[in-house]
Write a structure and sequence with these properties.
mainly alpha
Length: 226
């Protein structure tokens, strides 16, 4: 359906008569002409993700739509939360972290109960109680991407320099998108894999040459052929 819609919108450019617009759509993708694809979205319903990951995801604002579960309208009396991987091997620190979260949940409920008794307004109670919620609190959100936006998101967030949780999210979105449109496989990759050089400069992981290194390689080959 994506390529049919894409081709149907794009064929007007050359007044192309065809009963197979999906071929035009695929041709546009391979040649990098995406304007005809912008009426279609990949939409993902994501649950049990820490709020800090949502904050990172919604920075991708061009070609996207997003709705996030509201801590104002949705109570979080017994909230789920993320545990940092780096402390899981330290039982003492892990226990302290868990106690902190238990205390936070209790304080949340106390504030929520007090404000509701005071005002009679559940929304106001949630508003006041959410002040204590940590960034690791799990939440849900829906995010949609145009093809271009999904490619940009995956190429940025599949990089090994991306934070673990946003990278896991990007991997999950990539896998779901490829189930629907396997033709996107070559593009839903870290940007170095698509561009054949790493744009991270001195922070490069070394999998691909940096832009500077690639230019040096090209110049060396040019000189050796002269």
């Amino acid at each position: 359906m994506l390529f049919w819609n894409w081709g149907t919108a794009s064929k007007v450019c050359y007044n192309t008569e065809t009963d197979e617009p999906d071929k035009i759509g695929k041709g546009c993708m391979y040649s990098g002409h995406f304007s005809g694809s912008r009426g279609d979205y990949f939409k993902f319903y994501v649950t049990d993700v820490p709020r800090f990951t949502v904050d990172q995801a919604v920075r991708h604002s061009t070609g996207t739509m997003c709705n996030v579960s509201s801590f104002r309208y949705v109570g979080e009396g017994t909230f789920a939360y993320e545990i940092p991987e780096e402390i899981k091997d330290n039982q003492e620190l892990l226990d302290k972290y868990m106690r902190h979260m238990d205390d936070t949940a209790e304080l949340y409920r106390d504030i929520q109960s007090y404000v509701f008794e005071k005002t009679g307004k559940k929304e106001r109670a949630n508003e006041s109680a959410r002040y204590v919620l940590p960034m690791s609190t799990h939440t849900s959100f829906v995010m949609g991407f145009t093809v271009e936006a999904l490619i940009h998101f995956c190429q940025a967030r599949l990089c090994v320099r991306a934070e673990d949780k946003i990278r896991e999210l990007a991997m999950g979105m990539r896998d779901e998108a490829l189930r629907a449109v396997p033709e996107l496989k070559a593009r839903l990759v870290p940007q170095c894999q698509w561009m054949l050089y790493c744009p991270e400069g001195k922070h490069s992981c070394g999998a691909y040459p940096t832009r500077k290194e690639l230019k040096e390689i090209i110049n060396e080959r040019k000189n050796s052929n002269n």
